[in-house]
């Protein structure tokens, strides 16, 4: 007999404003419990020190969360010059102190120009990347360091928001895989000093920005399950960047049973991933296999059909 999953079949996306001091997983579990959801996942970890946008995917939305992992992100950070820490942020131990040369905002602007565009980064030891099956931060806590491959990332924009001599605030828009802590360290080195970040806030990821964020306390304050579920965005917001195909009921039935279906692919090329709708209802993703055919790729649960 199949084990019954505990909780309610809650589906959707919550744009959580993650609080400082909580791990992404801890924040995720609080949301899952508040909504009594059977299943939950997030799209891109934020360090405990960091705050801001953490999209939490509930139920069927977890099937499509990977589409946000590739997304560009926007952060606001405060960079402190004069010290390097083992974690790259204020929660780590200071491992080097450096003199801060006389600097102006114009000096920082000139250095920032060198970090806009495609750059190379070495991922920090305090990261969730894995080496031989173990997360790097686990090795770092044991005092170990391993070689990390240099990766190419893109800094689309880096704006200086404030400068006060030995610290400054930046807003950056970066590609996936960019470590803001490492970016701050590299900028500090280019300015002739060490650096670490003392604050980090994510303002946007992919199509989502800070406007729709909800703190956990606000979710707790909502009265009852219906109000809390009303705060969720629909599942298909995660794949809104993909082209849309409409199918009729006959095609839907074939797709949900794992079979290709005849459709008007609207000129989309073979191999193209598309959103599938029957009427106004999102049914999942399909792959165009020809000008008049689509095959199922990842569909919503249709156990109730």
TrEMBL record:
Residues 243-300 form the tRNA pseudouridine synthase II TruB subfamily 1 C-terminal domain. Its EC number is 5.4.99.25. InterPro entries: PsdUridine_synth_cat_dom_sf, PsdUridine_synth_N, PUA-like_sf, PUA_sf, tRNA_psdUridine_synth_TruB, tRNA_sdUridine_synth_fam1_C, TruB_C. Residues 181-239 form the tRNA pseudouridylate synthase B C-terminal domain. GO terms for molecular function: tRNA pseudouridine(55) synthase activity. Residues 32-180 form the Pseudouridine synthase II N-terminal domain. It catalyses: uridine(55) in tRNA = pseudouridine(55) in tRNA. It comes from the Bacteria. The active site is at residue 47. Keywords: Isomerase, tRNA processing. Responsible for synthesis of pseudouridine from uracil-55 in the psi GC loop of transfer RNAs. Belongs to the pseudouridine synthase TruB family. Type 1 subfamily. PANTHER family: PSEUDOURIDYLATE SYNTHASE TRUB1 (PTHR13767:SF2), TRNA-PSEUDOURIDINE SYNTHASE (PTHR13767). This is tRNA pseudouridine synthase B. It comes from Billgrantia aerodenitrificans.
């Amino acid at each position: 007999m199949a084990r019954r999953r505990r909780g309610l079949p809650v589906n959707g996306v919550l744009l959580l404003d993650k609080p400082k001091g909580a791990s992404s997983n801890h924040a995720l579990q609080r949301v899952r419990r508040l909504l009594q959801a059977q299943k939950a996942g997030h799209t891109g970890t934020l360090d405990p020190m960091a705050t801001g946008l953490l999209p939490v995917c509930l139920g069927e939305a977890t099937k499509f969360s990977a589409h946000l992992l590739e997304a560009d992100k926007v952060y606001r950070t405060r960079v402190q010059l004069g010290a390097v820490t083992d974690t790259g942020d204020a929660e780590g131990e200071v491992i080097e102190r450096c003199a801060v040369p006389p600097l102006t905002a114009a000096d920082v602007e000139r250095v920032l120009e060198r970090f806009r565009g495609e750059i190379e980064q070495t991922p920090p030891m305090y990261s969730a990347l894995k080496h031989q099956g173990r997360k790097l931060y686990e090795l770092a806590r044991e005092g170990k360091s391993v070689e990390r491959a240099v990766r190419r990332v893109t800094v689309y924009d880096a704006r200086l928001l404030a400068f006060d001599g030995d610290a400054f605030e930046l807003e950056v828009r970066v590609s996936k895989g960019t470590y803001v802590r490492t970016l701050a360290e590299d900028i500090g080195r280019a300015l002739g000093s060490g650096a670490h970040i003392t604050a980090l806030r994510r303002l946007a990821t992919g199509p989502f920005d800070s406007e729709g964020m909800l703190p956990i306390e606000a979710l707790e304050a909502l009265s009852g399950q219906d109000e809390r579920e009303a705060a969720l965005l629909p599942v298909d917001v995660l794949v809104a960047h993909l082209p849309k195909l409409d199918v009729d009921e006959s095609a839907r039935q074939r797709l949900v049973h794992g079979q290709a279906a005849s459709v008007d692919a609207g000129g989309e090329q073979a191999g193209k991933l598309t959103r599938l709708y029957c009427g106004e209802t999102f049914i999942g993703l399909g792959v165009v296999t020809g000008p008049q055919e689509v095959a199922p790729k990842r569909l919503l649960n249709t156990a109730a059909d």
